[in-house]
Specification:
The structure holds 2 protein chains of 2 kinds. By secondary structure, chain A is mainly alpha-helical. Chain A contains 13 helices and no strands. Chain A starts with 5 loop residues before the first helix and ends with a helix. The chains are: A mainly alpha, B mainly alpha.
């Protein structure tokens, strides 16, 4: 490795170059977005590369904060993040704990029942009709309840529970602890890494999800942040903004980019935690179920 | 019965959790029945009259169906050909680098797009590819070319989908392969170096074979979402001009089924897609098991 021929050195240089270039390609758009969101009207409308705004203004953000649906969007997104994650963890643990116990009868069949949902899906229309019959359309619960049933997460949890030494459980059983007590006192405290991982998966899912909004919710007060941003960014609907902040209203580009930043706030706040736990978590997930 | 009573607490837990699966995963499977019925909202799923395979026959007789099938298959095939190996390649390259700092830097930046929604990703793709505001147009002009309205050109649609899919998840996808590569015993590399193997030979003889089991599992898992994947992405990038190459089964079912209320007909297309997906994942699992002599595979 150290004693390289010139071909070897050239190869290493090329690898550095390719990776560096890739990193720049991936990161540049986000710098551009930040720059344009803070730019004055003339600056934002200029085409080409944007790195640092020459003149920083907050007009786009001021405009954004006056838009009422941004706030309801925030509260709906936070609701689904909180309620969704709690429920997901609850259901995942309840399914995984029995299936991880060796003495639990008909385990194979019961696991299969969950696995099947991973490989066969009813399709969009039956989902829609089901939620309609359950009167979940146009409610905030439609974001939370269906997501709780996730077979992949159950598999991850099962394999984590199984990695906890059996001797601990047996000792507790001999002392007369019930199954629930074993779960609450031994398994859960020892499973914190897995619980955090699955919790963060769920959080990120809920921050970014918009399909269930698009399919099942038409009431704009129940829209999540991503759907509000979608209307501005993809459907180009900026008519809700009546600019009165300054004489020169912010450019539509600035508004769009500010919306991108605002809607990414939850992720940006969580990002440091995400990185640390997700790398570990993906490895837990890679263990064969 | 006796064993059930003995494990009543465990059963109660399982039943509570299974109730969610029953309602939200098996419920829609029951709803698939409407593909064989003429669904009327007032009669409900069970009360609507049976019509047998009428909707499937209608399906196979329309040109739309073949366009959708072709688009869905082609798009997923391209994704499998280009987007699936991309993170493996990235992990192999990252693994060749000795500088820990540079490694961390590249990894941390490349994870970023994974945490951004497809709404934002697609919005940015549209924005950057625009002929007036887009940076891409600027680069094309710089090289003396003429910028095109890429999003309004049906020829570019699949490349845009595949390209943006790679950009979004290449970094994130590489984690698992990178972990597999870090798990290789250094002695293997040392002895190979002593035997005179160069960088390339060590990569093809040690690194790549070592991560093959991981690749196989990821391959089957990605087939699980085959034909359904990228709905969130495509629905944001698609516009009427690109329907011809970009409209896939899911986007069509959403548009025609839910927005134009053709429930039964589109449920039939959805069911067809689910069945093809099921066959694919079963087939892939059998193949992988055979190739690895029963050592790999999901079950």
């Amino acid at each position: 490795m150290r004693t390289g021929t010139w071909q070897d050195k050239l190869a290493v240089c090329l690898i550095y170059l390719v990776l560096g270039l890739l990193a720049v390609i991936v990161v540049y758009p986000f710098i551009h977005v930040l720059s344009v969101s803070f730019s004055s009207r003339g600056e934002a409308l200029r085409s080409g590369f944007h790195w640092i705004p020459r003149q920083i203004t907050f007009d786009a953000y001021k405009e954004m904060l006056k838009y009422p649906f941004i706030w309801s969007g925030f509260s709906n997104t936070l609701f689904r993040m909180a309620a969704g994650t709690v429920l997901t963890l609850l259901v995942t643990v309840c399914a995984a704990y029995p299936l991880s116990r060796k003495e639990f009868p008909w385990k194979r069949v019961l696991v299969m029942l969950l696995l099947f949902t991973m490989i066969f899906d009813g399709g969009i229309v039956p989902h829609y009709l089901l939620l309609k019959e359950l009167h979940l359309l146009n409610t905030r619960w439609v974001y939370v309840l269906p997501h709780a049933a996730n077979a992949f997460q159950v598999l991850v949890m099962i394999s984590f529970f199984r990695s906890i030494p059996d001797a601990l459980v047996e000792a507790a059983r001999i002392d007369g602890a019930s199954d629930l007590r074993v779960l609450a006192r031994i398994m859960l405290p020892l499973s914190m890494p897995a619980l955090v991982t699955i919790g963060l998966w769920s959080l990120v899912y809920h921050i970014n999800a918009f399909m269930d909004n698009l399919l099942y919710v038409t009431d704009q007060t129940k829209f999540v942040l991503q759907q509000i941003v979608r209307q501005m960014l993809i459907e180009n609907r900026l008519d809700a903004f009546t600019s009165t902040v300054s004489e020169i209203p912010p450019a539509p580009e600035s508004l769009k980019m500010a919306a991108v930043i605002v809607s990414s706030l939850p992720v940006l706040v969580l990002y440091p935690f995400l990185l640390r736990f997700f790398e570990k978590g993906t490895m837990i997930g890679s263990v064969k179920g | 019965m006796k064993t059930m009573w003995k494990h009543r607490e465990l059963f109660a837990l399982y039943l509570f959790a299974f109730a969610f699966f029953l309602v939200f995963k098996y419920g829609p499977i029951y709803g698939v029945l409407i593909a064989f019925k003429d669904f009327r909202v007032v009669d409900g799923i069970w009360g609507s009259p049976w019509v047998g395979l009428k909707h499937f026959e209608a399906l196979f007789h329309t040109a739309d169906f073949y366009r959708l099938l072709k688009n869905t298959l082609l798009l997923n095939l391209y994704l499998l050909l280009f987007a699936f190996p991309a993170p493996i390649l990235l992990a192999l390259l990252l693994n060749e680098i000795r500088s820990r700092f540079f490694q961390r830097f590249v990894q941390t930046t490349m994870y970023l797009p994974h945490f951004v929604s497809w709404v934002i990703m697609s919005g940015l793709v549209i924005y950057f590819l625009s002929p007036t505001t887009g940076v891409v147009a600027e680069i094309v002009k710089w090289f003396g070319g003429k910028p095109v309205f890429y999003m309004g050109q049906k020829e570019y649609f699949r490349s845009i989908v595949v390209g943006s899919a790679i950009l979004k998840d290449i970094g994130w996808g590489s984690i698992i392969y990178f972990a597999a590569l870090s798990g290789i015993h250094p002695e293997l590399h040392e002895s190979a170096t002593i035997d005179g193997a160069n960088r390339w030979q060590r990569m093809t003889a040690i690194n790549i074979p070592s991560i093959m089991p991981t690749v196989a599992i990821m391959f089957i898992l990605s087939l699980g979402g085959f034909l359904s994947a990228n709905f969130e992405q495509i629905i944001n990038l698609l516009n009427p001009v690109t329907y011809e190459t970009g409209d896939v089964i899911d986007t069509y079912v959403y548009r025609v089924g839910l927005q134009q209320f053709q429930y039964s007909y589109t449920a039939a297309i959805g069911l067809f897609k689910s069945l093809v997906g099921l066959l694919l994942i079963l087939g892939a699992n059998i193949t992988v098991r055979k190739l690895s002599r029963g050592e790999s595979g999901l079950w």
